[in-house]
Amino acid sequence: MGRAKIVRRRYFAALLITISIFILGLFFGFLMDNLRTDYFTQFAQKQELDYRSLQLQYELMNSNVLSNQCQGLRTLFDKYIKDLEDNRERLEVYNQKAKINKEEFALLKRRYTLSQINFWYISQNLRQTCPNSSDYVTILYFYGTDEQCPSCDEQASYLDYFKKKMGTQLLIFALDSNFEEEPTISVLKDSFDVDTLPTLVVNGKKFGFLDKEQLADKICEHLRDKEKYGFCKD
Considering only CA atoms, which of 120, 61, 59 is closest in space to residue 85? Predict the structure, then answer.
């Protein structure tokens, strides 16, 4: 009888330890999600301020209040674009790890999506106002789920390849075509008549799936300094 009590106590103790570990895991998971959310909220606020600062400088320059600021504006633009790209990578990691605060993640994703669209918009304006400082190519990349778009992963890998080759000379703005929380995506899809996935809008021209060679051709069409990149044909 005594041995049975000892066994029961051991099972009870093991159960308590298991429950405690489970609760601690939930607690620390929730805590880490909150810390990540706070971090990305601050980062999103910084990006919004960066865009507003860049937009103000552009408007001042465009109204002739400032002059000869194209190169300085381009340098600042490149820095902010790099920050935007870094935030995308962190958000992808966060999305894989987050298990609790999905609503907060959706809000962060919306803010990030708006930042992408804002910087894409100003990149179009910079090309017109500062053509000599704007030898870059912009790509709006509309993607979907694996079921909707079996070739989206392959398309993304080609985009990543050229992004690594070109850095800030290639600006890729990836938009989730199913992200209904941000209505501007629907406006852009309607504007560019996006009816298949993937869709690439390269410097304002719409294309469907482009393989590596085709994508290189489309990028090189819009570069002045083609000799800088070995993948551009003569």
Answer: 120
Last residue of a domain, one of 107, 133, 159: 133
Residue 100 belongs to domain with CATH number? 1.20.58
91-125 pLDDT per residue, tens:
776 665 555 467 777 788 888 898 899 889 989 88
Cα distance from N-terminal residue to C-terminal residue, the chain? 91
Closest CA to 117 of 180, 55, 170, 185: 185
Domain boundary among 100, 133, 166: 133
Buried-state track 93-119, b at ≥16 Cβ within 10 A, e below 16: ebeeebeebeebbebbbbbbbbbbbbb
Instruction: Give the Å distances, CA to CA, from 144 to 98, 149, 151, 195.
Output: 21, 6, 10, 12
Please write the tens of the pLDDT for every residue from 152-204: 999 999 999 999 999 989 999 999 999 988 999 999 999 999 999 999 999 99
